[in-house]
Design goal:
single chain, 7 strands, 200 residues, alpha/beta, 14% strand, two-stranded antiparallel ribbon, Rossmann fold, five-stranded parallel sheet
């Protein structure tokens, strides 16, 4: 099974790219969304987060207080590192299970903002980095999440640079509102089908 990783900084438009792949019948694993779910559903993960950051990180038994946790980890690189060390093993285990349940296609896509930082790229045959200009990325996130420019910048500081991601990737998709995304995805889709045929 081919696994194609998709990464990119916040606001680069990874989700848009993944929706195009999904429209082509490709199963997509959204690691960031699954991580958020696990942080409210996985009892051991909830226990570890409370132990590390305090029970006030949850409202009631298992409703994660995202804002409170974000206020901590996006202002403290060491705290973010500790959170990732707690969460990533659970996501890795969940992806392994998901992969077994989605094994009928020619290839799978795994989307993760911190694909390289978490080591999740080790599961991937090839990796795509989605790129967009810095100011456009900030504008997208401010409008999407109703946050301030400074809050977005704080998140960006804790993500590896686009240039680092590009160096480690085999492919790039430009999502700058000028280059059309669909033709880029279609071209890569055909390339991945060819890799699948060659593997067989």
């Amino acid at each position: 099974m081919l696994i194609i990783g998709i990464t990119g900084g916040i606001g680069s438009g990874k989700s848009v790219v993944c929706k195009v792949f999904e429209s082509l019948g490709v199963d997509v694993y959204d690691a960031d969304s699954e991580a958020r779910k696990l942080m409210s559903e996985d009892a051991m993960l909830i226990r570890d987060i409370k132990k590390q950051f305090g029970s006030e990180m949850y409202i009631g038994k298992d409703t994660l207080n995202r804002k409170k946790l974000a206020d901590i980890v996006f202002h403290d690189a060491e705290a973010l590192k500790k959170l990732n060390e707690i969460v990533h093993p659970s996501v890795k285990k969940h992806f392994k299970k998901w992969k077994k349940e989605h094994n009928e296609g020619k290839y799978l896509v795994k989307e993760a903002a911190i694909l390289f930082e978490s080591g999740a790229n080790e599961d991937c045959t090839k990796v795509i980095t989605v790129v967009a200009p810095h100011d456009l990325r900030v504008k997208r996130v401010v409008e999407r999440d109703k946050v301030t420019k400074q809050q977005v910048e704080n998140i960006m500081i804790n993500q590896s640079s686009t240039s680092d991601k590009i160096k480690k990737s085999e492919f790039i998709i430009i999502n700058d509102n000028n280059e059309l995304v669909i033709p880029q995805v279609l071209e890569l889709h055909e390339a991945f089908l060819k890799i699948y045929r060659d593997f067989k």
